Amino acid sequence: MGSVEGRAVLAAGDMVYDVGEASGGGVPAEPVEAIGHHLALHELTARLGADGSLAARGLEPLGRCVDVVLGPPVPWPRQVFGVGLNYRTHAEETGMGIPDAPLVFTKFPGCLSGPTADIELASTTTDYEAELVVVIGACVKDVPVADAWGVVAGLTVGQDISDRALQNAGARPQFSLGKSHDGYGPTGPFVVSPDLVADRDDLAVRGAVNGDVRQSDTTANLIFGVAELVSYLSSILTLYPGDLIFTGTPSGVGMATGDFLRPGDAVTTTIEGIGTLTNRCV
Fold this sequence. Notes:
By secondary structure, this protein is α+β, with helices and mostly antiparallel strands. Helices cover 16% and strands 29% of the residues. The chain has 2 domains: 2-64, no CATH class; 80-280, Fumarylacetoacetate hydrolase, domain 2, CATH 3.90.850. The chain has a 7-stranded mixed β-sheet, with helices on one face. A 4-stranded antiparallel β-sheet has the order 1-2-3-4. A hairpin with a 2-residue loop joins strand 1 and strand 2 (7-12). The radius of gyration is 18 Å and the shape is globular.
């Protein structure tokens, strides 16, 4: 599932269809509400791909995936969590120890942007962080690790763009503001159901700047995996449909080398089986 102009859409082949129209109103058109119907979305996607049956009933696509302007697939989640130092190599490059529990901060929802949106640099210390993003599909509390994947509606690609100077400002740094400038949360292009990827716990993550690959790892190397993160967060507070979890970034970030983003840079983020973001810095 993705979004176009604030409405939920589905991709079938290389075409994009409006969810509200394709479902005959059975699934809400608003993306966060639609995520709460992720099982129905799964069925609808299968029907869209079967023999053109919906097209035969007069359903017109919005256009090809490459032609429509996709927004963030979940534009206004109630909660957006980030997890710091969740790859051992990234913790090591920062000079910090391996965390004993997930290091959690928040990205305020207003920072979210689409898969091709520009990144308006707010400082000279703006950094890139390629990440797998988890999308919650149900209202849940106290989910056991063994059941955690069952409440995940899907996965998407994310960039946890970070203003490092602001992130580390103050005697007791508080990450959230440095992670939440307008446009500092590109996501998309679509939310992909976990059963559509070959191995949901082992997905290649790659981040490049101007074609130069800076980050390359696999989610198999997460210190706290998806199921652990969902269980941990739900043990503390209620999770809601559409909530996002940025699961952490591999090593290779600009903070380690002092090579931060500059106007004109193109940041490309790819996750195996999920998709690619390309965001230009302005």
